[in-house]
Design goal:
There is one protein chain. By secondary structure, the chain is of the alpha/beta class. The chain folds into 3 domains: 132 residues, no CATH class; 259 residues, P-loop containing nucleotide triphosphate hydrolases (Rossmann fold, 3-Layer(aba) Sandwich); 115 residues, no CATH class. It has 19 helices and 18 strands. The chain has an 11-stranded mixed beta sheet with strand order 9-8-18-17-16-10-15-14-11-13-12. Strands 1-2-5-4-3-7 form a 6-stranded antiparallel barrel. The chain is elongated and about 95 Å long. The termini are far apart. 39% of the residues are buried.
């Protein structure tokens, strides 16, 4: 007997129903549960009665309709143990198995076409039905855990739907978000060793989760030359958020294209042995825009500023030039910015930098982890802006031939709900990936413990969401607004979820489901950033050099 025949109604005739339909309204149904005596309830096995989140089957005329239990209550409650009560279960109708010509139910599909009738009997979904409902035999999938309803049923994700339409992992601190990120990516990379994944790691916690499979880019080995930056990004580096810096910005907008032209013509002259006058080079700026990803020298920028200063008729206009020149010299010589300005020579090494970031070729390292701890705090937003912007541009100009997944931890820092917060170019770059990335093969994963601080337009683009424990009503409301399914009442479980549990919904899963993630091996656990006070306070620090080392690191960070 094949698996399809296991789901015929003959199999269920020996299984007693748990109730019958007494109301159907739109996508919801109400079930009058059998066994309404308290004595019956006391003798019933837990597996024989529905619980919150249980999947129930309704025997309709030509299909099996499945509903998720979202509420349980007793109507006409009586204290006496012998008095009959009315037990009610509320269901969200989520999908169905349609009967074929052989009387079998081979394929599950989301949505309901044949609604149940009043009086239709309701059953607990069998193990075979659960397997069929959550199976994806014809698609690329990964297993990430088990269903809470039946731990023997694996929780699987559709990889192409998960990545192709973006995903989000949301939950309060301590719910296991970092472990979930590591588990998802490890599972994806296990089946796709030639993947191209970029993980933005603000707390330097993920390198242990991937071992030799990761290219770890840290402040010690990061090379992101300043000429990669757009005008807004370079202004942020040189001038920050200083008010009244419009004059300095106008000077930069004038000299940077000229510096790019000077470098380009110098390269051409070296290649063909031709000569060109310095004055001609100075006037070739309009050939390049201020945002063109073309190399240029900081020394040329400073020379061009001096050149403009020498042409001024009124010396009282020198202020913005002097200030800008001073800021450029200060930042470019700051050892904390060596990853941008530290190279002795300027070379057009864009190809090698992008190849390293996006793993082309993969060379047994399908994921790049960008560690941000240790970078100057004032440029972290700029670094994230450059990385996310280049990710989209690379996908665009490679015609989508190399799909890239970028996962953004602490996403509320970069795409905040408040339009006046954060760094606008970073928000714009991530928003562009969220809205247009799927057309060019760029997928986005966002992770945060502060859902209410996220830009809701970005979250709405994530078609698969893993909602972990949340007790804040505003966080729950934000997640509820992002749900694409009718079964939004499943989020009532959010405050009671355990660590490592989640409600998964969206295109990456067949149905909204409560699941428990697999445990990671001990060696693959992300580094915890939570201080263990009792452990640290059990040891006395007696080394006199300890404080000196702290101050040295403090000062070297420039704070």
């Amino acid at each position: 007997m094949n698996e399809a025949s296991l789901t015929t109604s003959e199999e269920h005739r020996e299984i007693p129903p748990v109730g019958r339909i007494v109301s159907v309204t739109g996508s919801r149904a109400i079930v009058h549960l059998a066994g309404c005596q308290k004595a019956d309830a006391a003798s019933a096995l837990p597996a024989q009665r529905p619980e919150m989140g249980t999947l129930l089957r309704i025997e309709a005329a030509s299909s099996m309709v499945f509903g998720l239990v979202t509420a349980l209550r007793v109507e006409s409650y009586e204290a006496a143990s012998t008095v009959a009560e009315t037990w009610i279960a509320e269901l969200d109708l989520v999908g169905e198995l349609l009967m074929n010509d052989k009387g079998e139910y081979p394929t599950f599909r989301r949505g309901v076409t044949a609604y149940p009738n009043l009086g239709d009997e309701v059953y607990l979904a069998t193990q075979q039905e659960l397997r069929k409902t959550f199976a994806h035999d014809d698609e690329a999938t990964i297993e990430i855990g088990q269903l809470t309803q039946d731990s023997s049923i694996p929780a699987v994700l559709k990889v192409d739907e998960l990545l192709g339409k973006h995903f989000a992992i949301l939950g309060t601190t301590g719910t296991g978000k970092s472990c979930t990120v590591a588990l998802l990516l490890r599972s994806i990379l296990w089946d796709n060793p030639l993947a191209h994944v970029l993980l933005i790691d603000p707390h330097n916690e993920y390198s242990a989760s991937f071992g030799q499979a990761a290219e770890v880019v840290s402040p010690e080995n990061l090379y992101l030359p300043y000429w990669f930056l757009t005008f807004q990004e370079i202004v942020e580096v040189f001038l920050g958020d200083r008010p009244n810096s419009l004059a300095e910005q106008e000077i930069l907008a004038d000299v940077i294209p000229a510096a790019k032209a000077r470098y380009a013509h110098g390269q051409q002259r070296n290649a063909r042995g031709a000569q060109k006058s310095p004055r001609a080079r100075l006037n070739d700026g309009p050939a390049y825009t201020v945002d063109s990803p073309v190399p240029y020298r900081i020394s040329d920028v400073l020379d061009l500023i001096l050149d403009r200063m020498g042409r001024l008729e009124h010396k009282n206009s020198l202020g913005p030039y002097k200030l800008l020149k001073s800021r450029i010299e200060s930042v470019s010589k700051d050892p904390r910015f060596a990853f941008m300005f530290g190279s002795v020579t300027v070379n057009d090494d864009m190809s090698s930098i992008l190849s390293r970031l996006f793993r082309i070729p993969v060379n047994n390292k399908p994921i790049t982890i960008l560690e941000l701890t240790g970078l100057p705090s004032e440029v972290i937003n700029v670094v994230v802006s450059v990385i996310t912007r280049m990710t989209f541009d690379f996908a665009l100009w490679s015609n989508g031939l190399v799909p890239v997944t970028i996962v953004c931890e602490e996403a509320h820092r970069y795409i905040p709900k408040d339009p006046n917060a954060g760094f606008e170019p970073t928000r714009r770059a991530i928003s562009r990936i969220a809205k247009e990335g799927r057309k060019y093969g760029v997928s986005l994963g966002i992770v945060t413990q502060r859902p209410t601080e996220l830009d809701p337009t970005i979250v709405s683009q994530c078609n698969t969401v893993f909602a972990m424990r949340m007790s804040n009503e505003l966080d729950q409301a934000m997640v509820r607004a992002a749900i694409p399914d009718a079964a939004e009442s499943v989020l009532e479980f959010l405050p009671s979820l355990g660590t490592g549990e989640a409600i998964a919904f969206g295109d990456g899963v067949t149905l909204p489901a409560r699941l428990r993630f697999h445990m990671l091996p001990e060696h693959a656990m992300p580094h915890s950033t939570t201080a263990k006070f009792s452990e640290k306070w059990s040891k006395n620090i007696t080394d006199p050099k300890f404080m000196e080392a702290v101050i040295r690191r403090w000062r070297s960070a420039g704070h």
